[in-house]
Design a protein that fits this description.
It is a single chain. With 412 residues, this protein is α/β, with parallel strands linked by helices. The protein folds into 2 domains: 101 residues, Rossmann fold, CATH 3.40.50.2300; 298 residues, tm_1862 like domain (pyruvate-formate lyase- activating enzyme). 42% of the residues lie in helices and 14% in strands. A hairpin with a 2-residue loop joins strand 4 and strand 5. Helix 6 runs parallel beside helix 7, helix 7 packs parallel to helix 8 and helix 11 runs parallel beside helix 14. Bound molecules: cobalamin and iron/sulfur cluster. Iron/sulfur cluster binds next to loops. The site of iron/sulfur cluster has 7 residues, from loops.
């Protein structure tokens, strides 16, 4: 707050943009209220996944003047013009305050030509500082790293997921992606790129072409996928091409081993194919991670256990077992609400690591305990720890990662 206050007083912005994820309301309230206390006329605009999916929650924060739902690049420019010109026209995704609420637009802005967008202004980023904040993978091979987002949207309809970018996948061209990599590498000495798309491998040919260009240009970089790969679309060709382009780690999301739940949550992943991808990836020396989710509505104890058994039988190097958290604005939330009713409000669900679990409220089963046992079973295996150690790009990170895992297990 001290730094923020200093910026407000020195820079005196006319417009403040706040990016929000689910659970940020308290922070938004503090930032927006303080901004208005210092600068009465400043305009506070919130965007990001939370504002997009639960705009009504922001009605409670009277210092927020507008919201931008969905993609922000053009809509935020419109917001800036609207403030200076005081024009009253509307723009897709732009929701101005109207008394106690917001005028929610009928549609959001969808940028169809992603190549036409300029790259982020990387000169504004302090890369060393950035590396000190949590990374999605939990490890990096170099302190000069950056995330990349090379496509927007995912065509699948998992009931736990937010669709910020709609359902029609839009992809940046291989040339455009590689140009951004080159800019970051040669201008800012970035050595590792973490690709965090929703579905980077939606189009196999695009992936192969990106890899070919990286190889041809001898970029000598490291690639990591803390998410972004759909496991049942990941074949041997793709895995080998990624490896040749510098990939050292991939993550695939199973969520559940139960075919029934795969249908219920509409993930509909081909579990056997994902298992094959894990085996191929591990065999080729990639640090192979997987995501699992525990505690979906109607999930039985046997289904929970079958998910854990699957994770233990695969040659994985690392896992995350997430306890299901129904976020507002998702079908999963509506299901959970129908199941436990207004009691859902007592759950403090802003954090994946929260103690609260909808599943426990619904069934009485202590899913946190099951999660803890799963972690212990997975990581208290010297052979697995050794395999992970061998592939960890930075051995210090290994110790940090292990102690963070241990801390997480103790906190569960
Ligand atoms: C990478 C990532 C992380 C990394 C970030 C690391 C890093 N160095 O970048 C880490 C692991 C730290 C992380 C943490 C969390 N994450 Co996360 N993460 C992502 C992921 C995979 C990619 C984010 C990204 O780069 N997107 C690309 C950019 C271009 O999109 P964007 O940020 O949404 O921004 C666009 C619009 O939203 C909008 N916009 C965004 N901000 C603003 C602000 C203004 C003013 C305006 C006008 C517009 C605007 O304009 C942008 C361009 O069009 C997304 C999935 C996804 N598809 O985005 C999940 C996602 C954002 N994460 C999510 C969640 C829930 C979390 C956590 C809350 C989980 C937790 N509790 O532990 C934390 C919150 C951390 C925090 N305090 O913000 C959810 C958010 C859902 C929701 N409704 O809030 C997502 C969408 C995943 C999902 N499908 O459910 N995450
Ligand atoms: S596959 Fe992943 S990104 Fe796509 S809808 Fe499902 S959870 Fe969301």
């Amino acid at each position: 707050m001290k730094e923020y206050d200093k910026i407000l007083r020195e820079y005196q912005p006319d417009l403040i943009g706040i990016s929000t994820n689910y659970g940020d309301l308290q922070v938004v309230n503090e930032l927006a209220t303080h901004a208005k206390a210092v600068l009465k006329k400043t305009h506070v605009c919130c965007g990001g996944p939370y504002a997009t999916h639960a705009p009504l929650d922001f009605e409670r924060v009277s210092s927020v003047d507008s919201l931008i739902l969905g993609e922000g690049e053009n809509a935020f420019c419109f917001c800036a013009r609207r403030i200076t010109s005081r024009e009253k026209c509307f723009y897709p995704g732009f929701a101005p305050r109207t008394g106690s609420g917001f005028a929610i637009p009928d549609s959001n802005d969808i940028i169809s030509d992603l190549d036409a967008q300029p790259f982020p202004d990387w000169d504004l980023i302090d890369f060393d500082c950035y590396a000190r904040f949590p990374q999605m993978s939990g490890y990096i091979s170099s302190r000069r790293y950056m995330t990349l987002f090379t496509s927007r949207a995912c065509p699948y309809n998992c009931i736990n997921c937010h669709s910020i970018f709609g359902k029609k996948v839009r992809m940046r061209s291989p040339d455009n992606v590689v140009k951004e990599i080159e800019t970051l590498k040669y201008k800012h000495n970035v050595e590792e790129f973490q690709i965090v798309d929703d579905i980077f491998n939606f189009n196999k040919n695009r992936v192969l072409e990106i890899c070919r260009l990286i190889e041809k240009k001898n970029l000598d970089i490291r690639l990591s996928f803390p998410n972004g790969l759909r496991g049942d679309l990941l074949d041997e060709d793709t895995i080998l091409a990624l490896k040749r382009a510098g990939a050292y780690s991939i993550t695939v999301a199973f969520e559940t081993a139960s075919e029934r739940l795969q249908k219920l949550i509409q993930k509909n992943i081909d579990i056997e194919r994902v298992c094959d991808a894990v085996r191929i990836s591990a065999r080729n020396g990639l640090l192979t991670r997987a995501f699992f989710m525990l505690g979906f509505p109607t999930e039985t104890l046997e289904e929970l256990m079958s998910t854990i058994r699957l994770s233990l039988k695969l040659p994985l190097h690392a896992v995350s077992y997430f306890v299901v958290i129904p976020f507002k604005g998702t079908v999963l939330y509506d299901m959970a609400l129908a199941d436990v009713g207004e009691k859902i409000a007592i759950l403090k669900h802003q954090d994946y690591l929260t103690q609260d679990a909808y599943y426990t409220l619904s069934t009485g089963l202590d899913v946190r305990r099951i999660q803890r046992i799963a972690y212990l079973k997975f990581y208290l295996n010297p052979f697995r720890l050794y395999r992970l150690f061998k592939l960890m790009p930075n051995k210090w990170m290994y110790i940090r990662q292990l102690s963070a895992n241990l801390q997480n297990i103790l906190n569960i």
